[in-house]
Write a sequence for this structure.
């Protein structure tokens, strides 16, 4: 869909879905074509021109990718086959949103861009033998990533190539990982991790024409970054912490 909604307002939207059939057989479970994958998603954007050289764009997208089983085979078995104790599905979901605001005054322009990303990944692995026992073991991993960023800058340019730019950039990223291991019906939480990175930067640049064919540029960037990583023991408090974050 791509259509005007009103003077100075237009929207665009896309939806999609696909399914890829599997081609790997699991001999142990007597299953054929176990690795089917499906993808569903969509994106949309809205552009508004309120007047006086202002421009606003808002957009977003979502996608869900699911795999019914692992995408691998064993080289010592017949082609495109393997033998496992249970299915190893995986799922990755993400959502993004963004907003860009622009304002122009003759030779000067202000731009502020803000973005947000949420990414969730779930994976199942056959970990039989990893715990020193022949009993089937399942390993589950959940990864939850959140990112938000903004960059705001103002710039001015002249016909002779001279000009300047100044701005600020902000980034905050959080990645939490939870894990479980054990028999499929009695999994036990094990150690996970939570990493967080934040960054603030101030930057500027100045251009000056040295000759009609040579432009000199000088700039500076001041950045403050903080990175924190914490291991989380496998207990109920750990799981609650991540679910609430």
């Amino acid at each position: 869909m791509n259509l005007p909604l009103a003077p100075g307002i237009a929207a665009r939207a896309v939806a999609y879905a696909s399914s890829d059939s599997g081609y790997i057989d699991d001999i142990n479970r007597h299953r054929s074509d176990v690795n089917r994958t499906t993808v569903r998603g969509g994106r949309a954007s809205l552009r508004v021109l309120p007047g006086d050289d202002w421009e606003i764009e808002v957009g977003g997208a979502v996608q869900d990718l699911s795999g019914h089983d692992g995408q691998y085979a064993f080289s010592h078995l017949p082609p495109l086959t393997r033998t496992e104790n249970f299915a190893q599905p995986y799922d990755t979901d993400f959502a993004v949103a963004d907003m860009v605001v622009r304002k122009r005054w003759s030779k000067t322009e202000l731009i502020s861009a803000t973005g947000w990303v949420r990414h969730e990944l779930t994976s199942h692995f056959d970990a039989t033998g990893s715990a020193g026992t022949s009993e089937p073991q399942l390993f589950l991993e959940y990864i939850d990533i959140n990112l938000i960023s903004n960059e705001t800058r103002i710039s001015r340019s002249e016909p002779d190539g001279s000009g300047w730019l100044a701005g600020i950039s902000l980034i905050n990223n959080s990645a939490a990982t939870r894990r479980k291991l054990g028999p499929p019906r009695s999994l036990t939480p094990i150690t996970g991790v939570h990493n967080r990175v934040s960054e603030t930067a101030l930057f500027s640049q100045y251009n000056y024409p040295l000759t009609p064919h040579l432009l000199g540029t000088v700039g500076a960037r001041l950045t403050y970054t903080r990175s924190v990583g914490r291991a989380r023991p496998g207990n109920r408090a750990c799981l609650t912490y991540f679910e609430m974050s």
Notes: The chain has one helix and twelve strands. The helical segments are 236-244. The longest strand covers residues 188-211. The domain at 2-244 is CATH 2.40.170.20 (Maltoporin; Chain A).
